[in-house]
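All the exercises in this workshop are built on plain-text protein records. Sequence and backbone structure share a record, each on its own labelled line. The question running through the whole workshop is how a given chain folds. The record below serves as our worked example for the rest of this section.
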Amino acid sequence: MDANYNKWSYDEFIAFVMLYAANADYEIVEDEKELIIGKVGEKEYKELLKYSNNNHDTENINIILDLKKKHIKTEEDLAELFDQINEVINADGVVNLYEKNMNNALHFLFDHEG
């Protein structure tokens, strides 16, 4: 994984968004972790987690919005992204208030991003 996020692949971008959503309740459970590892592998999962943890929330949101411009070109792409987000926040069978709010916030950001 390249430290320069502008060089991240589509799968790295999706995994980063999934990681961001999974961490909405400040806990990434094993089922969520396994889904993300399935996207990019364990080594890249750990690198993405470290990268995310070293940033402020605003920085992670800006990364997501920057990479959205690169990787999400159509409504179908956006729907696929939200399918991935929903899959990870539903991974443990419980969607708590933090995860619901994260999903709503990401929808709002993507719908109103200039």
